[in-house]
Amino acid sequence: MTPARSFPDNAVRPVLVVGAGLAGLTAARVLLAAGVPVRVLEARDRVGGRTWAVPALSDGGEDSLLDLGATWGWDHHPHLRQLLGELGIRPFVQPSAGATAYQTPQGVHRLPHPSGSTGYLRFAGGAAVLCRTLAGQLPAHSLELNTRVTQLRRLPNGQGIEVQAEQGESPRTYAAAAAVLALPPRLVAHRVAFDPVLSAELLQTLREVPTWMSHAMKCVVVALVKSLVQRLNERLLGGRVNASYCATAGARKVHLVAPIDRELLCR
Ligand SMILES: Cc1cc2nc3c(=O)[nH]c(=O)nc-3n(C[C@H](O)[C@H](O)[C@H](O)COP(=O)(O)OP(=O)(O)OC[C@H]3O[C@@H](n4cnc5c(N)ncnc54)[C@H](O)[C@@H]3O)c2cc1C
Q1: Which residue's CA is the nearest one to ligand 1's atom 5?
Q2: For the residues 148-152, what does the mean pLDDT come to?
Q3: pLDDT (0 to 100) of residue 15
Q4: Which of 74, 120, 246, 253 could form a disulfide with 218 if both were Cys (CB 3.0 to 4.6 A apart)?
C-alpha cells in the first residue's frame, strides 16, 4: 500500500477502488487508514459481491437471512479473525458434533460424522455482514453503487488515470491518482478496457486465473421446508434441528429453511 503523501501531484485525487466486495472494501479500509482518499465504485445496487444473504422467511428478520454466496470463515484465518475483532463482529462456531442423517424411500440413513470439520465460523445475518459493516464505515459519499467501470486510461506526465463508468444510462468520468481493481480477473479481462492496452501476456493471465467457486450456485427452497425439517426434527434428531439444512446436489446447494433457533445455534 502506498501512503497518500507519495502522490503529491494527485493529493486531492482519490484512489478509485472498483468493486465493493470483501476485497474492495478491505482495500478501501486499508487505504483510508493510511490517509489516502478513496472512492469505491460498485456495479450492483448493493455491496457484498459474492457475499449475499437473502431473507428466507417473510417474518424472519435477520434470523432468516441465508447465504447465497460465501457462508463460512475458518478459525485458523488470523487476518479474518483480526478484521472481525476490529469490526466488532462476533461469529459463532457452526455446530459440528452430532449425527448426520437423511431419509430416502428405503429408510433413514445415518452417516458417521466426518472428522476434521471443526472451526467453521458463521455470521448472524450472513457473511455479507462484513461488507455491510465495512461499507458503513466509509466516509460519506465515497461509495457509489450502480456504477459499472468500463475503461481505465492512463494520463500523460504522471497525472494519474481517468476512469470511465456507466451509472445507469449515464456515462461518468472520474479522475484518480490510481485504481484498485477488486473484481475477478476474468471480468477485468473481458469487461474493462485499458488505454494503453494491457500486454497480451497480462491479458492471457487475467483470463486464466480461476474465479473461486464460480462453478457454484445456491438457492433457497422454502415451500418444502417446514414439513421436511419438522419430520427430521421429530423423527431423526429428537427436536434438535435448528437452522437451515444444506443439501449438495452436484454443483448446486439448496438450503431447506426452518425458523432459526438462535439460542441453539450460538451454543
Ligand atoms: C456460492 C458461493 C459460495 C462460496 N462459499 C464460500 C465460503 O463458504 N467461504 C469463503 O471463504 N468463500 C466462499 N466463496 C468465495 C467468496 O464468496 C469470494 O472469494 C469472495 O466473496 C470474493 O470477494 P471479492 O471482493 O474478491 O470479489 P467479489 O465478491 O466478486 O466482488 C467484486 C465486486 O465487483 C463488482 N464489479 C464487477 N465488475 C465491476 C465493474 N466493471 N465496475 C464496478 N464494479 C464491478 C461486483 O458487482 C462485485 O460486487 C463462495 C463463493 C460462491 C459464489
Answers
A1: 70
A2: 98
A3: 97
A4: 253
20 Cβ below 6 A of ligand 1: yes
Which amino acid is located at 170 in the chain? S
- Beta-ladder partners of 176: 161
β-strand partners of 148: 166
pLDDT digits (tens, 9 = 90+) for 167-181: 989 999 999 999 999
Task: Give residue 105 CA to ligand 1 midpoint distance, Å.
Answer: 38
CA distance 256 to 223: 9
Q: Amino acid identity of 168? A: G
Q: Is 23 in the pocket of ligand 1 (CB under 6 A)?
A: yes
Indicate the top mutation candidate among 50, 75, 180 to test ligand 1's pocket, ranked by most ligand atoms within 8 A of CB: 50
Ligand 1 atom closest to residue 71's alpha carbon, by position in its atom list: 8
Q: What letter does residue 108 receive in the DSSP assignment?
A: E
Give residue 9's identity as a one-letter amino acid code: D
Rounded CA-CA distance 56/226 in Å is 12
Q: What is the pLDDT of residues 217-260, one digit of tens each?
A: 777 765 444 555 556 555 554 544 333 444 433 333 444 444 44
How far away, in angstroms, is 24 Cα from ligand 1 center?
Answer: 10
Mean pLDDT, all residues of the chain? 80
> What pLDDT sits at residue 226?
52
Nearest CA to ligand 1 atom 7: 70
